[in-house]
Amino acid sequence: MLAIGPEYGFGLYVHWPYCTQICPYCDFNVYAAKDRAHGSLLEAMRADLKAQKAKLPGHPPLDTVFLGGGTPSLLSGAELAYLLEGVNDTFGIESGAEITLEANPNDILGGVAQDWAQAGINRLSIGIQSLDDQALSFLGRDHDSQSARAAIELAQAVFDNHSVDLIYARPGQRLVDWQTELSEVLALGAPHLSLYELTIAERTAFGKRAARGGLVPMPDDDQADLYELTQTLCDAAGLPAYEVSNHARAAEYESRHNHIYWASGDWVGIGPGAHGRLTVDGQRRATEAVRRPGAYQDAPGPAQTVLTDTDTAREFLAMALRPAAGLDLKRFEILFAIKADANLLADFQANGLAHMSSDRLILTVRGRLMADYIASLLVPY
């Protein structure tokens, strides 16, 4: 039995590349929506599904479907139903599967949440990003705090399982301001929060502004203080972290799709620029679709690269440290063909970065702040 693959979960990621406007921090493969018709891209996605299914005859039905972007909430209920019908006809969707739609507040305010539910969506991930109007303007969002609150209320009337996304550690953000903002979000009652520190990527508008000196990212120590405050507030509200950036009221609200990534399961990626990871005949394969929507519609399928054993093991390690369940050291040993360095494990514990539970290395709050660095130290070669 391999230590990776569909037995650790099998999902589908759908990348919808269009947005009404492109946020200055966004580093994803996105394009301005304008008045584009959706039909030809939906047809290309259904064709992509069939092409990839032909190469995966032994994979089971899908455990999860995640529609991200971009802004997939620009799709109507009928369009989502058409796409999901193609998914089910091609791969099959397991009974009780998690089917998530990323949604912008203004799209929810259009009164289409019930249509999405009827199409088969059973989980919303709502990108409010902030409840502070000044911060929303800085982040380039097309909604205000009042709209965000109203959208959450509308979503809750249809979807019990929903998540709210926030971006914090913004330049100049104070601890007291974040405490107020996060407390207000927690009071809205969402059973899941995804809380991300602002990343300034080089090729984004923010990245270009930072290169000119017009934007100064928050210092690492200040970000760490905000992260620790985040854990304290969420713990007290009954939404502990089950992963570095994700919090849930109970296990049933955890993102099952993201757990596939963290566990090194398999997922198909469709849509312009979508990535996938597939295990076929004992090989781990990385897939990447053509990025431009027009070119994607003419492409025969995604490019595939066979990953080396070392690449596979390193990807596993980088992801497996993130969840609260910790790193399974038995899987580490299978993938790296060597035990984890006992001295390193002892050092992590002595320095308050991790603790051991059975055969798992579990990071503390301090350790989560250094998850990538700890992973790099654990790589044996």
Textual characterization of the structure:
- With 381 residues, the protein is an alpha/beta fold.
- The protein folds into 2 domains: 6-260, Alpha-Beta Horseshoe (pyruvate-formate lyase- activating enzyme), CATH 3.80.30.20; 308-381, Arc Repressor Mutant, subunit A, CATH 1.10.10.
- 40% of the residues lie in helices and 23% in strands.
- The protein is built from 16 helices and 17 strands.
- The strands form 4 sheets. It has a 9-stranded mixed beta sheet, sandwiched between helices. Strands 12-13-14 form a 3-stranded antiparallel beta sheet, with no helix packed on it.
The total of beta strands comes to 17
- Physical arrangement of strands within the biggest beta sheet: 9-10-8-7-6-5-4-1-11
Under CATH, the topology of the largest domain can be stated as: pyruvate-formate lyase- activating enzyme
Question: In the CATH classification, which architecture of the largest domain applies?
Answer: Alpha-Beta Horseshoe
Q: Which blocks of ≥5 consecutive residues have pLDDT under 50?
A: none
Principal-axes shape call: globular
CATH superfamily of the largest domain: tm_1862 like domain
Cα Rg: 21 Å
How confident overall, as mean pLDDT?
A: 96
**Helix percent band:** 25-40%
Number of domains: 2
CATH class of the largest domain: Alpha Beta
How much of the sequence is in beta strands? 15-25%
Distance between the termini: 24 Å
The class by helix and strand makeup works out as alpha/beta
